[in-house]
Design goal:
- With 173 residues, the chain is an alpha+beta fold.
- It has a domain at 81-171.
- The protein is 28% helix and 14% strand.
- The chain has helices spanning 9-18, 44-54, 61-69, 107-116, 147-155, and strands spanning 82-85, 88-92, 104-106, 125-128, 141-144, 165-168.
- The strands form two sheets. A three-stranded antiparallel β-sheet has the order 1-2-3. A three-stranded antiparallel β-sheet has the order 4-5-6.
- The radius of gyration is 26 Å and the shape is extended.
Amino acid sequence: MIKGTKHTQETINKMKIAHKNDKPNKSSFKKGCKGTWFGKKFSEEHKENMSESRKGKHYSPNTEFKINQLKGSHNFNWNNGVYNHEGYINILYRSHPKAKKNGYIARSRLVVEKEINRFLEQEESVHHINENKKDDCPKNLLAFASESAHQRFHHNPHNVKPREIIFDGRYLI
């Protein structure tokens, strides 16, 4: 559009229809609905301004107490640092260099790391031979150099090169 010209009424109506869902309404606050900001990219300057606006703001002492009361072993869901995510057992191990942001790491990865005496890299993956995700004994685990090798093993176990297998529990005594 050329600077200084105005939109026609027809164009304005089209824009209103196209952007009618951009304004937050009561339905956008329902569980599972995403806000109007979802998917938008913010400039670094805008991110900095948002960060600055939150600085110095704190919860009330009562709210702080409630939040801290629900952390770690005080939470009613606490299970001694062990939880099941999609069938995989995860262990709380905050000092592990490959732990997720929440401090947990898959138990199967820890078992393989202990067997090979080194940390697994992010791209290296672990496979459960008997397909039971909770069975993390060393004899049931295979470690692959890449997710690609892991997927090829699923489709055809003979299609994986020996150098792509980091650890093979099938050969343990």
